[in-house]
Amino acid sequence: MSQLVFTLYFVALGGLSLYGLFGLLTFGLYWRHRRASFPTPPMPSEPPSVTVQLPLFNEPFVVERLIHTAVSLNYPAHKLQIQVIDDSTDSTTERAARWVAYYKERGVNISLLHRNQRDGYKAGALAHALPHATGEFIAIFDADFQPQPDFLLQTIPHFAINPALGMVQTRWGHLNDGRSPLTSAQAIALDKHFAMEQTVRHRANLFPKFNGAGGVWRHTCLEEAGGWHTDTVCEDMCLSTRAVLHQWECLFLNEVQSPAELPTTISAYKSQQARWSKGSSQCLLKYGRAIATTPHHTPLARFYALISMSAYSTNLLVILLLLLQIPLLLLDFQFSSWMLLFSVAGVGQPLLFVMSQRVLYQDWLWRLRHFPTMVLIAIGLAPSNSRAILQALFGRQQAHEFVRTPKQGSQADSPLQELRFDWLLLVELGLALYAWLGVALAMQQQNYGPLFFLASCALAYSGMIALNMREWRWHSKQVRRETAVTPLP
Question: Looking at residue 332, what is its pLDDT?
């Protein structure tokens, strides 16, 4: 039994160390390619036609802002088409229709495409709208995005100088990163993904990917790659993987920012991260063999793509590592000096977070005060993300629902999405109690090696429960307020 515990421990620690070393590899590649620049070429004398697609589902608080922003894009009007692609079942459709009609009367080429059934979710909606898109290029913005007016002027010219360029992705900015410690922590995580990982993927040609919004596709590339598939919940990664396998090139513009809204509640953030975890795992299952065997990409590119797609498996390893701590303490396992090698590997990922802030912001040191919060939230998300991964591996295809991330826009007090009891809360409670028990046992035995990890898990899961309970109480108050009957005078 003890041998099994030790084996599992080293498997978990070794797996996490692999992704730590992967962070060091990413940092080295970033340093190598950091000076590459991509100045905006001149716009062709005859600008190409562009279709801007705005996929929506029940977004009443941001739909009007989104349409206003799209109409304000600086591009020749006769070359611009705007599609509001709506699957909503609430007042979003009515709001969108009113503004579409308003701008149509003023000569804007804008249309509303509404579906009564949400078949295929976002991918299905985009596939439904694509035959009606007249543009040579397709720009996509989710409901919470506010692209800069010159977005198309900074992206479209790159296609003119490179016929093999199939997609341009821009960096996501943040509209509300300073609203709370939660949004500030999310901003750090996203900055690392874009400024470090996306920069490396694109500049070193390591299977670059589309992020679902804030980017532009060449229409012919999109169709040649097979269009939008509905068998994963990460339609963006699915499509961009196929495009790269078809040898289309991709470009990431770190200097072009597409501001978007960060989830403002822990429940919304959990649903977003779970969807990304599940979708990434689905894409690994779907394309793993094709990536590993393609003759058109280097071994490094194939390795990088496979490790990136499997990166969410670290959530499973974190939980396994936690569950092994008490058995190891009972077996009187001591943290030996040679195991510091695993700690050295763990430096890789934090280094990327720090570097991303250093590259993007002048006040980067001040922003890093939210780094501990980000680490605790990442640990706290492990049960939710792990469940999503297991669903991707063993669940039925019909069970893979696309759970949208609700947006609040400027409505700070807008109602939350419907909150239903999730048994995962009991798992988080159990893990919190288990971690606190481990802390007490380690202190009693004066075995301080695992204490930092155990304390981090205890704080993370306790904090996750506290945040969930706070949202439940707030939601209950909102429901009571909305359903209260005003007495007659």
Answer: 86
Q: Is the pLDDT of residue 36 over 60?
A: yes
| 140 assigned to some structural domain | no
CB atoms within 10 A of CB 160: 14
Q: Which residues form the catalytic set? A: 87, 236
Three-state SS at 119: coil
413 pLDDT tier (thresholds 50, 70, 90) = very low
CB 60 within 8 A of CB 95: yes
What percent of the chain lies above the pLDDT cut of 70? 89
Q: How does DSSP classify residue 46? A: S
Q: Which residues contact 440 (CB under 8 A, 6 or more apart)?
A: none
Is 95 part of a structural domain of the chain?
Answer: no
DSSP 413-430: TPPPPPP---THHHHHHH
As a whole number of angstroms, the distance between CA 350 and CA 38 comes to 27
Q: Is residue 139 part of a domain?
A: no
Give a yes or no: residue 56 inside a domain. Answer: no
Write out pLDDT tens, residues 261-320. 999 999 999 999 999 999 999 999 999 999 999 999 999 999 999 999 999 999 999 999
Instruction: From residue 47, give the alpha-carbon distance in Å to each of 40, 50, 153, 158, 250.
Output: 14, 9, 10, 12, 20
**What is the pLDDT at residue 348?**
87
Please state, in angstroms and as integers, the Cα–Cα distance from residue 73 to each residue in 81, 253, 470, following that order. Answer: 11, 18, 40
Number of H helices, E strands in the chain: 19, 7
The parent domain of residue 249 ranges over 1-37+164-410+418-476
Which residues in 115-184 belong to E strands, given as ranges? 137-140, 165-174
To 5 degrees, how large is the angle CA 391–CA 393–CA 399? 40
**DSSP code of residue 196:** I
Q: pLDDT: is 399 or 63 the higher one?
A: 63
Dist CA 202 CA 193 (whole Å): 12
Q: Give all strands of the β-sheet with 50-56 in edge-to-edge order.
A: 110-114, 80-86, 50-56, 137-140, 215-218, 165-174, 249-260
Hey, is 37 helix, strand or coil?
A: coil
| pLDDT tens profile 67-97 | 999 999 999 999 999 999 999 999 999 999 9
- Structurally, the chain folds into a number of domains equal to 1
* CA dist 203 → 38, 89, 193, 280, 447 (Å): 10, 42, 14, 21, 46
165-174/215-218 β-pairing? antiparallel
For residue 415, name the pLDDT band (cuts at 50, 70, 90).
very low
Task: Tell me if residue 298 falls in helix, strand or coil.
Answer: coil
Alpha carbons 4 and 11: distance in angstroms, whole number? 10
- Return d(Cα 428, Cα 421) in angstroms, integer: 13
pLDDT value at residue 88: 95
Instruction: Name the strand (E) or helix (H) holding 450.
Output: none
Statement: residue 484 has pLDDT above 50: no
